Amino acid sequence: MTTLDATTATVRPEPPLAGDEVETLLGSLERQRATFAWKAGELDDEALGLTLGPSSMTLGGLLKHLALVEDEVFTKALLGRPLPAPWDKVDWELQPDWEWTSAANDSAEQLYALWRSAVLRSRDAVRRALAADGLDHPADVMFADGRPTLRRLVVDMIEEYARHTGHADLLRESIDGLVGEDPPAHNPTWPGV
């Protein structure tokens, strides 16, 4: 089974070829996280703030956005807990894109730490939900068309990472030419987070 707390592993996560549903979904999510970490990893403040073409998107903005989405999906939607700092102090009505725009004011170290801590909180939330009800664990949030399960939230997060890892791929190539589909098998930028 894919470990949710392998914070010292440097081997690229890979979903099992013949795993069960939990192993496959969590393995896929961890692979997406690892690929994103590789594309966004080991850059300085300046590189994280670079844009490509007419887009205002940056790798720093992606790091902060994905940290927010991790917390929105697994801390708030799944567990029903309030968003932690820094999200709890933002007036989202006045600044709906705050995570994207404010990333320019953060250092690389702050952005990496924010993303890593959000991923660790998410892993803990998923672990708790799996222990309670497996992938059928109902989320705390209720949508107009019903209450999602943990299964649905994990699929949503895989989609979120897949979309933004594509963006990160283009941004990173424009910064230093780094290309490739998968990080190296022993990737120092992937210490489990």
UniProtKB/TrEMBL annotation:
InterPro entries: DinB/YfiT-like (IPR034660), MST-like (IPR007061). This is DUF664 domain-containing protein.
